[in-house]
Amino acid sequence: MSEPPAQPSGLWSDDALWAARAIQFPVLFLDAQRRVHQANPAAQALAAKLVGDGRAESLVALVSDEQWAAALRDGYWKGIVRPDPQHPLALEIHCGQSPDTDHCLMVVLDISERDERQRQYAELQRTVDRLATAQEQLLRSEKMASIGQLAAGVAHEINNPIGYVGSNLGTLQDYSSALLSLVEKYHEVLFSENPQARRQEIVQARQQLDIDYILGDLPNLLSESREGIERVTKIVQDLKDFSRVGRDQKMQPADLLQGLDSTLNIVWNDLKYKVRLEKHYTSLPLVECLASEINQVFLNLLLNAGQAIEQRGTIVLASGCDDEEVWISVTDSGCGIPPEAMPHLFDPFFTTKPIGRGTGLGLAISYSIVAKHHGRIEVTSKVGQGSTFRVVLPIRQEPAQDPSETASPPSA
Ligand SMILES: Nc1ncnc2c1ncn2[C@@H]1O[C@H](COP(=O)(O)OP(=O)(O)OP(=O)(O)O)[C@@H](O)[C@H]1O
Ligand SMILES: [Mg+2]
Q: How confident is the model at residue 8 (pLDDT cuts 50, 70, 90)?
């Protein structure tokens, strides 16, 4: 304790002095003139730390008259003091005035570090928010990049039906003018003076216009065209579903096999020339998920499977479930993965593909999507024989689980 000034206060009992010494908080005992009568070791230590001389009076001198007056009036004051303009201090003062005298007890706290921690926390929070936005943008751009990769294939998939629908329309136009000519002929003959005598003309017109052939071909052309239009509508719809990304989306029950088929539809043009496809689907319950993000996982796995097959090969899609989980697997008969690459599969930017072919983000993003759904991706592979990627997802998301949390990558 610092030496009390000339006039000892005599206001603290021995017990109170003993307690003040033991207290970890800096405690000062002042009179109305702000003279220090007692200061416990914590107050002296604080003075040494903040002012450098260990004198409780220096601690008092840090605070202006108005600030002390506010502390006395309200019992509490918190604010910044600047003994050194470069290093502002945040202080908190708790004040209790004696009911009988004009003396008061003050607890002075240096909350600079607490304030600093709050500032750091706020900064950290802002960084987390920025990272979440960046991750969303990454997800979106990866998705757009894969759509870009697929654009030529998708354009072809759309062009093909549009091509034959267009050519069918040309033929249908010819057929309809032939049919209209025949109708005209009927009309002409029917309303002539002697229709009976002119029946042969109708027979000839039918032959000339090839009406029997038209009648046989017309329903086919119409149903083929309708099919083509439906196919284009489906691809456009699949693309729309696929390109949706957003933090605000809510997990909803979805049919994963339907999602897998839609995604297959988008990549099929890239695969169809070299891949024989087998589906071993077991029907699945609806799974609570962000369907468009899970479709992105399927897309990455299907693209990887296709890229692993150099000449010709097989891709097997399979599914299964138990009471808690569902799984969907993509097995290819491609090149396989060497054991030394296995631990790195889910690392961002890990790729063995030539520049321009792979960015190494497909599996990293798939991993984070599946982790967000509290699921996992299991991998088995044999060099020269092929690989299986199995996505396992819980059927229901626990309400208490935070969907934004992520886990560390699995050891493949
Ligand atoms: N089915 C597979 N067969 C063999 N190797 C695979 C298979 N799937 C992934 N890999 C290996 O894992 C690496 C990382 O895959 P990932 O999908 O993350 O990136 P990428 O396909 O190289 O590039 P991106 O997907 O960004 O276009 C691949 O480069 C490849 O070496
Ligand atoms: Mg990939």
A: very low
